[in-house]
Specification:
The chain is α+β, with helices and mostly antiparallel strands and 151 residues long. The chain has 2 domains: 77 residues, no CATH class; 56 residues, SH3 Domains (SH3 type barrels, Roll), CATH 2.30.30. 18% of the residues lie in helices and 40% in strands. The protein is built from 2 helices and 11 strands; from the N terminus they run E-E-E-E-H-H-E-E-E-E-E-E-E. A hairpin with a 4-residue loop joins strand 8 and strand 9. 15% of the residues are buried. This is DUF4926 domain-containing protein. It comes from Methylobacterium brachiatum. It holds the Pfam family DUF4926.
Length: 151
Amino acid sequence: MRSTRYADEIASADEGGARIERLRIRATGADEIRFSWWKDGRFQARPLDLPEDDLLRLLRKAIDERVFSAVFVENLRRMLDAGASTVIPEHSMVALSHDLTLKDGRKLPVGARGAVVFVHGDGEAYEVEFVDPFHAVATVPAPSLSRVSAA
């Protein structure tokens, strides 16, 4: 690993000169992450620009090489999992995947379409306003809905 007056390299991952480094900064003692570009073994004082596929490959290598702390990787995993939420947002068009019997005895058939007007909790259920085959606002459990395009 390299050492300079500025920092000590703790770990790094390199893909064709694109590099992610974990540095211990001498002035502060703090560990920091640097994205850098190297050409012919020399640091380039320019930004690192990569296509997304190459960046993903470099990130995977940096995780494997333990450039990132376990805490950082776990927080990143949580952040990505949260972004993959299956909650259907308000105003989305939905369709019933099961018949739904309303409190007044009327039945909405499979395929009935409506708009989400309220999300319960983390998407466990939705208030949906239906217009066809008749007007109704109903609480629908999440497994009974699928998102459809508005067209």
